[in-house]
Design goal:
This protein is 76% helix and 1% strand. The chain has helices at 3-22, 26-29, 33-61, 74-88, 96-99, 104-114, 120-130, 135-144, 150-165, 168-180, 183-193, 202-231, 235-264; strands spanning 90-91, 101-102. The protein starts with a helix and ends in a 5-residue tail after the last helix.
C-alpha cells in the first residue's frame, strides 16, 4: 500500500470520531459570553498542553541541545521549528511592528481576561509546575482543591502519557489529527455560534482566526506529511498512529461532553 493510501485509510478510520466532535452540541450551547467563559476555563488546559506535544516533537526531530548535531530529517526539523515559531511567538493583534509577540497560550489568556473568564486555575497549575511539581501531581492537587474537575485531569493526563511514553510517530499523530487537522473546523463552529452583543470577544476571535489561518493553510498539511514520513512503510507504525489518533479524538470528545454538561448545569468538571 502506498503512503497516500495509508494516510487515506487513517483518515477513514478516524472520520466517525472527528465528525462526532464537529457535530457536538457544545457549539450550539456557546451562544452567550457566560457559556464562552465556562468553555475557555476548561479549554485553556488543552491550549497549554498542546505545546508540550509540540516540544516533544521538537526534542525528537531537531537538535536542541549542545553540542549541536545536524537533524536526521531536515524537512521534519524545519516543519517543527516553523510551528514552534508560530505557536510560541506569534504576532499580537495589530501586527508585529506595533504590538510585539506572544505565545498562543498567552493570547488565549488575554482573550480570557477580556471576556472576564477565570484564569486562576490554569495559572496555579503553571505556578506549581514552575516550582518543580510533576504535572500529574499538580493536576491532582488542583482537583482536590476543587479548582478543576476530573475531565481536565483526564485530558491533560492522556496528553502527558503520550509526551512521556509515546513514540515519535504516535506523538505526531496525536498532534496532527487531534489538534492541527481538527481545530480549524472546530473553531469555525465556535465562531459561528457566538453572540457578540455583550462585547469583549475581539481577542478571542483573533486567537481563533490565527489558528484557522495557520493550521489550515500551513501547519495541517505539513503535519500530515510528517506523519507519513515517520510511519513510512511500517504496518505497525500506521496501526499505532491510527490508534493514537482515535484515542486523542475520544479524549477531546470526553472533555467536550463534560464542558457541555458544565454549561447546562454548572458544577466542577
Amino acid at each position: 500500500m502506498q503512503p497516500n493510501q495509508r494516510l487515506d485509510a487513517l483518515r477513514e478510520a478516524i472520520q466517525p470520531h472527528r465528525q462526532a466532535l464537529l457535530d457536538h452540541p457544545l457549539y450550539r450551547a456557546i451562544d452567550q459570553v457566560a457559556a464562552l467563559r465556562a468553555f475557555m476555563e476548561h479549554h485553556v488546559f488543552a491550549v497549554w498542553d498542546f505545546m508540550s506535544l509540540l516540544k516533544r516533537l521538537q526534542t525528537d526531530l531537531t537538535s536542541s541541545a549542545a553540542p549541536w548535531l545536524p537533524p536526521a530529517n531536515p524537512q521534519a526539523a524545519r516543519f517543527v521549528n516553523e510551528i514552534v515559531l508560530g505557536e510560541e511567538t506569534d504576532e499580537r493583534p495589530g501586527g508585529a511592528a506595533g504590538a510585539g509577540y506572544a505565545s498562543h497560550y498567552d493570547l488565549y489568556l488575554t482573550a480570557m481576561n477580556a471576556c472576564r473568564a477565570d484564569t486562576a486555575a490554569v495559572e496555579r497549575l503553571l505556578e506549581l509546575v514552575r516550582g518543580g511539581a510533576p504535572v500529574r501531581e499538580a493536576l491532582h492537587q488542583l482537583r482536590d482543591e476543587g479548582a478543576i474537575g476530573q475531565s481536565v485531569v483526564a485530558f491533560v493526563g492522556a496528553t502527558f502519557d503520550l509526551v512521556d511514553h509515546g513514540s515519535t510517530h504516535e506523538v505526531a499523530s496525536a498532534f496532527t489529527f487531534g489538534r492541527e487537522d481538527l481545530l480549524p473546523d472546530v473553531f469555525r463552529q465556535i465562531v459561528a455560534g457566538l453572540n457578540r452583543d455583550e462585547g469583549g470577544l475581539d481577542d478571542f476571535e483573533y486567537y481563533l482566526s490565527r489558528h484557522i489561518e495557520l493550521d489550515e493553510d500551513h501547519h495541517g498539511p505539513m503535519a500530515e506529511r510528517l506523519v507519513t514520513s515517520l510511519c513510512g512503510d511500517s504496518d505497525e507504525h500506521w496501526r499505532e498512529a491510527t490508534q493514537t489518533a482515535v484515542a486523542t479524538l475520544q479524549a477531546r470528545l470526553a472533555l467536550w461532553d463534560a464542558i457541555a454538561s458544565q454549561i447546562a448545569a454548572p458544577q466542577p468538571v
